[in-house]
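Reagents: none. Just compute today. rRNA-processing protein EFG1.
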Amino acid sequence: MKGTRLRFKKAQAKKPFRKQKKIPSLKNRIRALERFLKRENIDAATKAAKEAELKHLHDERDGKERLEEEKKLAEKYKKPRFFERVKVMRKLKQCKKAIGQASDAKERHQLEKEFEENRKKMMYIYYYPKAERYISLFPAKPLSEEDTQRQQELLASAAERFEEEQPEEAFERFCYAHGDDETSKPRGGAAAAATLLVKKPSKDGEKKKNKKPKKDKTEKGPQAKRERVLADEDDVEDLSGDAEMASGAKDGTDSDEDDFFLE
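Predicted 3D structure written out:
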């Protein structure tokens, strides 16, 4: 009776399986609302509420599309931006070091001017719009008139944003990679910035890495078991032989095998 009661309690404790409701996608929700609004004889208040909901869904969709586009462009132009950042970083460090070692005021003034130009270039890289194609600061070929004009606009807007926001600490880290001063090695900044290019392992890569090796099927079966047993017996014999040899050595009787190793 005890076992029956326990089984009955377990059966009661188990909850019935409920299939989870599928959440409709954003695209399907927009389509459903558009179909609903095409109907006739809809109440004015209901229509206004549904139109507002549709507008909100459209905004949500546009935001997602914009983020996806930004992500694609950021991934595409990540390397050019990184290499230009390292190049400008090196120039800033060189200028900073040269200013400290300048012999006269004229040379110092020229170096300070060069330092400010490189700082503006770094602001350009720092504030570059993610949703736009990257226009290089050091192009292999001359830029088109349109690209040159857009670059000048972006340089000016980056300087304005920097004046408004004043992100001194974050910008210093961006310029010198962890805020290294002029005494630090030039390669230190590049090495620290190189971590930006390191890609995270994908899910498939992690699965392959953590995948357990398959067992060899040839080991299975009665034959393999028999062989293992025989091998164990041999080991036992060897161990017993070793024990006999050890006892013989104690008694002072050396075997041929002992003579071989002694020679």
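Confidence is low (pLDDT under 50) at residues 178-198, 227-239, 249-263.
Action item: order primers for follow-up constructs.
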